[in-house]
Description:
InterPro entries: F-box-assoc_dom_typ3 (IPR013187), F-box-assoc_interact_dom (IPR017451). This protein is mainly β. The chain has helices spanning 182-185, 254-257, and strands at 2-5, 9-15, 22-24, 33-41, 46-54, 62-65, 74-75, 82-84, 89-91, 94-102, 110-118, 123-129, 134-138, 141-152, 155-167, 172-181, 190-196, 202-206, 213-219, 224-230, 263-266, 276-282. The protein folds into 2 domains: 32-131, no CATH class; 139-285, no CATH class. Helices cover 3% and strands 51% of the residues. 21% of the residues are buried.
Amino acid sequence: MRISVNDEDVVRAICNPITGKYTVLPKLRRYVKSYSYLGFDPIDKQFKVLFMAYPSGPDDHKILTLGTRRMRWRKIHCPLTHDPFSEGICINGVLYYLAIQIDEPLVNKRSFVIVCFDVRFEKFTFIDVDCFYHLINYKGKLGGIDWKYGNANGSRTFELSMWVLEDVEKHEWSKYDCTFLEHEVMFYNISLAVGMTATCEIVLSEKFASKSFYVFYFNPERETLQRVEIQGLEDHCRVYTITDHVEDLNVNDAKQLKSGPFITTKKPKAQQRRSCLNKLYTIRV
């Protein structure tokens, strides 16, 4: 989390929204663009913050270990010049985020990569990919979400694709392709894939609130897309959506959470669903 003071100074902090506790991180010099990622090492039980700057020199990237007596930033070397552009996700001790690879000799040449950072050993590896909109944790595996609007037999469609990294070493991906008709999604401005629920549904969300604000629950195995309306938001405000956050720890029933007075749900009928394909791809780099 970044906090601006007097519209100038930027304070970086780690916050736990359940306990309300926070830690202010040591100051860093300002860059034109930078990203901070939180990773967890399950072996040594350590949280670490990775700071990636762009444009950057060899000493501009930093890493910090939380919970130490004296927190300090350490230099860390990244062998690939890249421009991060997504939020990070940590799965089994590996932090992933999307980036554009910058080829210095050919300034206009760009390719997309998934940056893989081993939190324990503090090493970078990379996977060449087509561009995903967002990365998610799908059943303990890295997943990539992409979507587009199309047309089939004169009807507008919403085409949703999901890749799942089945083999990290061989770069083998399974892929789900699902197509929904216009009346199933109502063509709201879906712009974010915010994560996965405990019932293995992918949560898609709008970025800005309007008269009607919706989140969507996509189940690639059941080929369903459920729309949930959330009321009470002001128009034109920026909305940040987080999955599986419960303010009251005594509320553990998902059905109870979805039955609130300001939430209404609509689910497409079985005959309205379109085809969903599952394929296995091998991407060699």
